[in-house]
Amino acid sequence: MVTIKEIAKAAGVSPATVSRVLNYDPSLSLSAAKRQAVIETAEALNYATPRNRNRAQAGLPPLTARLAVQPRLAIVHFLDPSEELIDPYFIGVRLGIENRCAEFKMDLVKVFRSQTMAEALLLQGMAGVIAIGRHSREEIDWLAQHCRHLVFADFVPRRNDLDCVSCDLGLATRQILDGLKQAGYRRIAFIGGQDQKSAEGETFGEPRASAYIDWQRNEGRFDERLLALGTHTGDGQNLRLEVGYEQARRVLSSSERPDAVLAANDNMAIGAYRAMQEAGLSIPKDIAVVSYNDIPVAQFLNPPLSTMRILSEAIGETAVDLLVERINGRDYPKHVTIPSTMIWRQSCRQPGCADKNI
């Protein structure tokens, strides 16, 4: 496990500063550039685990062997730089892309959302484009029209002719809920955000929320009071800490409090921690918290957060591999799913430990 001291040394700041940055301390006075350096360093150190270093030393797959000239690739991000900084998960996706391109010695240009629709010239001369995150149907069609080769990372577009790589969030949700059930939790709440882009007009189109509803109905326990979704903000990043705080307060105000809360990502879980602490609740004695992503801060929370580890760097790496395959001549689409792994920590009982005193 990477330590706060290691992150502090690499970023050139104090361990206390790292702790406050990773815990999103709003009172911390620190420049945006230094804050970004801390978050990217934390993500990069997790990226450079012994497993990843050994894999890199073992050699690269011969994906670029037939390329006469190393191509220039572009990233089109659904977040602008300030929004990306809010969620280290997406920094992990980008770092995976950047590191893979560096391994292949390919040039990479970053094009953020605010520039995409207006400047088609930015994509001219690019051999391919990796689009990170959710995009509307109009954006997808525009990108497909202006890009020679196009791959989506952490998003499955509603077009069968485009390459993409993602995690199966529906399966991940069912695995989390099955684990909570085995641990003895029965009244499980979900806090997240509405996502109109993933299913036109469906209030619960976001896959984590949809899977939660289906699972609860199959168990005969669905209670609308335990479902709290923040309003879609339209800026691309709806699963913020403050939304988690607000939606946690909402479910905690129910006449019958939940015994566990599933948050749509770690940022929202951090907000839920604050709401529960303000309500005088102890985690996990009074209420459990579980989430998704396993960003670096998850292991440093008090108590450490149980979360579904989604390999954001692997998603970025695979997006580059798919794009190079297309450049090399593959003429059929691929949809790749990267498996996730549940990391049980001290924010809830583990499956098989149904004794509430454990």
Provide a compact summary of the structure.
The chain is of the alpha/beta class and 358 residues long. Helices cover 40% and strands 15% of the residues.
Please give the structural blueprint.
Blueprint lengths: L3 H8 L3 H8 L9 H16 L2 H8 L14 E6 L3 H6 L1 H16 L3 E6 H4 L11 E5 L4 H10 L3 E4 L9 E4 L2 H14 L5 E6 L13 H12 L8 E4 L10 H12 L7 E4 L2 H13 L9 E6 L12 E4 L2 H16 L7 E3 L3 E3 L15
Parallel strand pairs: 1-2, 1-3, 3-4, 4-5, 5-11, 6-7, 6-8, 8-9, 9-10
Antiparallel strand pairs: 10-12
Helix pairs in contact: 1-2, 1-3, 3-6, 6-13, 9-10, 11-12
CATH homologous superfamily placement of the largest domain = Response regulator
Query: What spatial form do the alpha-carbon principal axes imply?
Result: globular
Class of the largest domain in CATH?
Alpha Beta
Q: Write down the secondary-structure element order.
A: HHHHEHHEHEHEEHEHEHEHEEHEE
Tell me the β content.
15-25%
Structural class: alpha/beta
Overall structural domain count: 3
Q: What is the mean predicted local confidence, pLDDT?
A: 83
Helix content: 25-40%
Radius of gyration over C-alpha positions, nearest whole angstrom: 21 Å
In the CATH hierarchy, the third-tier topology of the largest domain is known as Rossmann fold
Enumerate the strands of the largest sheet in spatial order, edge to edge or round the barrel.
2-1-3-4-5-11
How many DSSP helices? 13
Largest sheet: 6 strands, parallel
- End-to-end gap: 25 Å
**DSSP, total strands:** 12
Low-confidence stretches: 49-59, 197-204
CATH-derived architecture of the largest domain: 3-Layer(aba) Sandwich
